[in-house]
Amino acid sequence: MSSPSTSAPLEQPVSEALLLVLGPVFIGTLFSWLLYGVSCVQLYLYHVSTYNDASWIRSLVYVIFLLDTYHTVVAAFMGWNFLCSGWGRPSALVYPGWTFVSIPIISGIVAALVQIFYAWRIHILRGWRMLPLLIIALALLQAAGGISTGIGVVPFTNVSQIHLLESRIDVWLAGSATVDVIISVSMVYILFTARQSSMISLHGERIINRLIRLSVETGIATTTTAVLELGMFFWTPNANFYVLLSLILCKVYSNALMTSLNSRALLKRSRGSLGPESTSTFTNSGASATFGGTRRHVEAISLPPISMPVVHVSSETEVFRNSADKPPGSLKAISEYDSIEMVEEVTFSHADHVATAV
Q1: What is the sign, positive or negative, of the torsion defined by CA atoms of 318, 324, 327, 330?
Q2: What is the CATH number of domain 16-262?
Q3: What global pTM score does this model have?
């Protein structure tokens, strides 16, 4: 009768080198599906919303979601190939295959679409031309780097050969991070300027602050992911940490776009939260407003003659002392309107404009 010690062969522990190859792929696949679930929820919220977006914007949203879906399928196939069908076959761990071709191409295209969308928003909000053109040029450049990287992988038979494409990967990831920084700084500047140059309520200031924070957070998310992927590619050439980040980069961009679009619901909720206790009073001698029990006064502003001496407006209005106080692309001074009714018509329009661009 054999002893227990000789009845079964001793199991060899999994080597650290193998864990550094398989582990990041497994974790990246999990996060890829997690973020895809978030994308599905974001798309549903956008689909059932009442946003009056142009048809090309809605088409852009659905195109990006389809690309994101394909990217998720690629991530799932890579995980299956590494951890299931390729288990015990070392050749499956080093052969790049079509998954390594698809990932940089899809990620570069999605990033470019999102970045070009932000460039358009910056142009609409401030009227700038050179900066949006610079963003578009860099976005197309990084997309070309991603597409070129994917095409360059086609003839490779070993993953280690990817390091022969370092210059293309530099253009792709470094370019993407650069564009993200430019967009984030521009959006924060636009929102900060709107907050400083507009005579808005404390409630309105809180909305602008939230939008500034959202711009910073989405910019940090996309920039950090791209920079970390580039860094891991060079710092850990024998591990698949860069693969982990490449499996989620596309989804970080798609979720950043959807978060930006769906954040406009914040402004709509803020309108409803003003309630009957939030009123604004405009007269020929001055203006005062009550927001949630806090009364704020604006010193005398010269207004054109109107038929009613006092108008009560159940909403929040941004007021400039005169046309010299306003920045480009902002509301007109209140004296430039023909009547106080026109002031009411533009109530919240500027805040809508800002929220849409974030």
Answers
A1: positive
A2: 1.20.1070
A3: 0.74
